[in-house]
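User: Hi! I'm working on a homework problem where we have to compare a predicted structure to a textbook description. Could you give me the structure for the chain below?
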Amino acid sequence: MRRREMHPNAHPAPRKRLYTEEQRARRDATRWTLVQGLLAPAQFLAFAVSVVLVLRFLLTGDGYMAATVSILVKTGFLYVIMVTGAIWEKVVFGQYLFAPAFFWEDVFSFAVIGLHTLYIIALFTGFLTATEQMVLALLAYATYAVNAGQFLWKLRLARLDGAAPQGVSA
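Assistant: Happy to help. Predicted structure tokens:
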């Protein structure tokens, strides 16, 4: 398949900015931006440690309790970041969830939360074996990784918007 080449003088269609000037000011002024900025890497660290512990259990059969505790810690971070993220969204965009700038990230976040919650239910009801619980946790983690990528992309777009002159899209 041949790539379509752009005329040398052609410019890509401008992209809508992620934030209005007012939203950017609210984003920069609220403490919830810092809270999100601290929670996101903490959650990622919990995720990385947990993936190792879950894989260790699946490969060796050892460390079920450590893997389980790590999943609960990771899930706790997820719930906290979801609640504080909704508050952040309310402050910045005027609604708790599904602001146009983050609509699809919020939609996918519900899949992430749903799978993590299903793990909690499976853990406390015993309707899945230990191995099935760990596989479910890995599925939840895969959706988390996609969702984290969505948010990292938005962070990049916000930085590009900040670097562009006012009124010009990156």
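For your comparison, note the following. Helices lie at 21-29, 31-60, 64-93, 103-125, 130-163. The longest helix spans residues 130-163. Good luck with the assignment!
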